[in-house]
Amino acid sequence: MSLNVEILEQSFERVKPNATQFASSFYQNLLTDYPQIRPLFANTSMEEQEEKLIMSLVLVVENLRNPDYLTTVLQQLGERHVRYGTMRQHYPIVGAELLKTFEAYLGEEWTPEVKQAWTDAYGAIANIMLDGANHVEEIVEG
Length: 142
Ligand code: HEM
Prior knowledge:
142 residues; 6 helices; 70% helix
């Protein structure tokens, strides 16, 4: 992965103090803009889910300098997502909503450079997760 690690670390630090609100606003945006995603979270405690999302984002950012470890963790996460009903076409939707939420929280600090860094990072994360998902036989192609 050739990512802009410093920009990702710095911009994530700015979001961290409001991480809970960030996650809650992300899922609100996602489920409002894409109601077709709602059934996937029908039996989910969204409060717990928000915590899990934050923890996984922290894990990703803290391990940008350990790409081998990060790859393994993200492949496993992608593999588990097949069981959650996640399909290939959901990844760009979630990416767009995540970027939108970053933009809302970073305001003027959401510069073209920061946007590019997160676009690249999400693309890399999604590719590794999908790679993990491909290891699961019953992968559902959308
Ligand atoms: C950057 C990409 C993503 C990250 C970091 C992420 C993170 C997580 C984490 C940490 C969990 C908790 C369970 C576990 O660790 O296995 C989870 C569960 C889940 N994710 Fe994701 N996810 C991502 C993409 C997606 C996408 C594209 C979808 C599709 C809409 C999705 C839907 C779900 C669902 C349905 C669950 C299960 C909720 C439950 O337990 O009821 N995720 N995700």
